[in-house]
């Protein structure tokens, strides 16, 4: 049988995760040197990543904060080294404006902020100054305490309204509308049911008119569904299922650890969806 050349779902990009932290929930400590981080990043590019997301501070539940200086030391050299070898989009995963500035000086072009530009008084102004693409994520609380019994009256409405307000605040500070992405924050201050409902109702965020980043790779919600997946590395099946579902429900980018497998899954899904409906 001749091979079928298929692109992933049109408009869906894959963001590959490059954690340069000692304590990330899935791969902390694996990329402890610039050389190891760059080698991993280049491998993700070969596997099909459209964007590389470089993170120097863990935001897993219970994580302790990292100083600006240490986070810059972890991320800026890696970004500069990747930029010297690749001209694609590099994202910095940080809540700190100073870290974002250093990352952009090193070659980043996207800022992925789990606090939706609320961590510092000048966050939105710095995003506007940098002229960057900005990902605004919903998080209830902060990493050390966010999973301590999170509650919502209506999780979809509250996440939607929060992200709409943060997008409005960013635009009021001078960030161009077409530079803003929204992320529902799967696993950030949410129970399994909250995560499942947000995924099933992703259309409520899509309807806001901003591109959606969906990030559920290897997260604990998969273990909550399949109790055998106690190790993050054993959550590939669940990660692929969530990435495919997020893409089909309107996400424009999926943030993943397993790039090659996700790209392949998206291609197969696209091939199926391209078939004409039954008449």
Describe this structure in words.
This protein is α/β, with parallel strands linked by helices. The chain has a single domain, classed as Alpha-Beta Barrel (TIM Barrel), CATH 3.20.20.20. The chain is built from ten helices and eight strands. The protein has helices at 34-47, 68-83, 97-106, 123-130, 155-172, 192-200, 203-206, 220-225, 236-248, 259-273, and strands at 13-19, 51-55, 89-93, 110-113, 133-137, 180-183, 213-214, 253-256. The chain has an eight-stranded parallel β-sheet with strand order 6-5-4-3-2-1-8-7. Strand 4, helix 4 and strand 5 form a beta-alpha-beta unit. The two termini are 26 Å apart. Mean pLDDT is 91; it is low at 1-8.
What attributes characterize this protein structure?
279 residues, eight-stranded parallel β-sheet, TIM Barrel, alpha/beta
Question: Which helices and strands, and how do they pair?
Answer:
Blueprint: E1 13-19, H1 34-47, E2 51-55, H2 68-83, E3 89-93, H3 97-106, E4 110-113, H4 123-130, E5 133-137, H5 155-172, E6 180-183, H6 192-200, H7 203-206, E7 213-214, H8 220-225, H9 236-248, E8 253-256, H10 259-273
Parallel strand pairs: 1-2, 1-8, 2-3, 3-4, 4-5, 5-6, 7-8
Helix pairs in contact: 1-2, 2-3, 3-4, 9-10
Shape: globular
Terminal CA distance: 26 Å
- Low-pLDDT residue spans: 1-8
Query: Which sequence of strands runs across the widest sheet?
Result: 6-5-4-3-2-1-8-7
Briefly note the CATH topology name: TIM Barrel
Round the mean pLDDT to the nearest integer and report it: 91
């Amino acid at each position: 049988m001749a091979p079928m050349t298929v692109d992933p779902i049109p408009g869906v990009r894959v963001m590959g995760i490059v954690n340069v932290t000692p304590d990330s929930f899935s791969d902390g400590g694996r990329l402890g040197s610039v050389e190891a981080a760059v080698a991993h990043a280049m491998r993700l590019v070969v596997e099909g990543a459209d964007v590389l997301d470089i993170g120097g501070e863990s935001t897993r539940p219970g994580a302790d904060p990292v100083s600006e200086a240490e986070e810059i030391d972890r991320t800026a050299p890696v970004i500069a080294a990747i930029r010297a070898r690749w001209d694609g989009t590099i994202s910095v995963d940080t809540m700190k404006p100073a870290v974002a500035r250093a990352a952009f000086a090193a070659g980043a072009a996207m800022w992925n902020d789990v606090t939706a530009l609320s961590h510092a008084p000048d966050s939105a102004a710095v995003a506007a100054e940098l002229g960057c693409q900005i990902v605004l994520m919903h998080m209830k609380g902060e990493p050390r305490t966010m999973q301590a019994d999170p509650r919502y009256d209506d999780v979809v409405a509250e996440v939607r309204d929060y992200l709409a307000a943060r997008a409005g605040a960013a635009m009021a500070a001078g960030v161009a509308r077409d530079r803003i992405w929204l992320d529902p924050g799967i696993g950030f201050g949410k129970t399994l049911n909250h995560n499942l409902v947000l995924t099933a109702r992703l259309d409520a965020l899509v309807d806001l008119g901003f591109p959606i980043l969906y990030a559920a790779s290897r997260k604990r919600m998969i273990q909550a569904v399949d109790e055998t997946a106690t190790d993050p590395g054993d959550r590939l099946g669940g990660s692929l299922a969530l990435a495919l579902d997020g893409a089909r429900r309107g996400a424009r980018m999926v943030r993943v650890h397993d790039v090659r497998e996700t790209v392949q899954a998206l291609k197969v899904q696209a091939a199926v969806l391209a078939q004409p409906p039954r008449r």
